[in-house]
Specification:
six-stranded mixed beta sheet, NAD(P)-bd_dom_sf, NADP binding, Rossmann fold, P5C_Rdtase_cat_N, alpha/beta, six-stranded parallel beta sheet, 2 domains, 12 helices
Length: 302
């Protein structure tokens, strides 16, 4: 039986994180001897913490949240292709080389988290889509929409000049993406099949008020990655206009499922979490208070 190992979610602030509840529920179900906790870390302290993880050698991995996702790219020892393309890491796997030395591999499960949350809500292939915000999570949203074969992606940002890196990623992904400013967003949102808000909590409140005042109706899907507080003003306005709302906790759930599978394998448990994926999803649903998934709802992209 593999030795007891530790893991954590890193970010700042981190007190609101539901990740410990998600992960610990999964590991308890699987009988895996893993601990998992939240650690408040700001960007200047990240390199030192990762050095400590390498030195201690009793870690299976780390979840990485804001504001660390971009900084982690340059601090791990290797990157998966998706993490390299996106320039964003939300998962760090602690692996061991042939000499017994711990090295850190950066990965990104946010793409699968967004994609599976949208599919669970009924998103169809080929949507006309919008992304609100051009930061670290926006690149994962771009990749997820490419997987959905989006016909058009409009990225709404406050300052297009600051979104150059995001558009470089869009080009690398082959995404049919263009930039627009928030000034026209409120009157345009109702025409999209899928809208993904990657904005921090409450940052979309002014846009929500403008959208509500516009009188538009929507039959589209809104995924708001912010989940605390919930419902967000944007989610309330979208639902009031007839749209389908997906809470950010759904993205957290599905990206967490992928992390559990990666961490279990890294910790010496092989495909145990993958083999029991259906049960893992449901105990994680219980842990964060969302409804369980039926087996036919669990066809996921990994």
């Amino acid at each position: 039986m593999p030795a007891s190992l530790q893991g954590a979610v890193l970010g700042h602030p981190i007190g609101h994180s539901q990740s410990p509840a998600l992960h610990n529920a999964a590991y308890q179900l699987l009988g895996i001897d893993f601990s998992y906790r939240a650690i408040d870390v700001e960007i200047p302290a990240l390199a030192e913490l990762l050095t400590q993880v390498r030195a201690e050698g009793n870690w299976y991995g780390l979840s990485v949240t804001m504001p660390l996702k971009n900084a982690a790219v340059d601090l791990v020892d290797e990157l998966t292709p998706v993490a390299r393309t996106l320039g964003s890491v939300n998962t760090i796997i602690a692996a061991t080389d042939d000499g017994g030395t711990t090295f850190l591999r950066g990965d990104n499960t946010d793409v699968a988290g967004i994609l599976n949350a949208l599919r669970h809500a009924g998103a169809q292939d080929g949507p006309r889509a919008a992304i609100l915000g051009g930061g670290g999570t926006a690149v994962s949203a771009l990749a997820a929409l490419v997987e959905l074969d989006a016909s058009e992606i409009v990225v709404f940002v406050r300052n297009p000049a600051k979104a150059a890196d995001t558009m470089e990623v869009a080009e690398a992904l082959g995404a049919p993406a263009s930039l627009s400013t928030f000034e026209g967003a409120a009157t345009a949102l109702g025409g999209f099949d899928v809208v993904i808000s990657t904005l921090p909590p409450r940052a979309a409140d002014p846009l929500a008020a403008d959208f509500a005042a516009s009188g538009q109706e929507s039959a589209g899907i809104l995924l708001d990655v912010a989940y605390d507080p919930w419902p967000s003003a944007l989610a309330q306005a979208w639902e009031a206009r007839g749209g389908i709302v997906v809470a950010g906790i759904e993205m957290l759930l599905y990206q967490g499922v992928e992390q559990v599978k990666l961490f279990a394998e890294a910790g010496g448990y092989g495909t145990l979490a993958t083999d029991k994926q259906g049960d893992v999803i449901n105990v994680m649903c219980d842990a964060i208070g969302v409804h369980r998934r039926n087996p036919h709802e669990q066809n996921m992209a990994g």
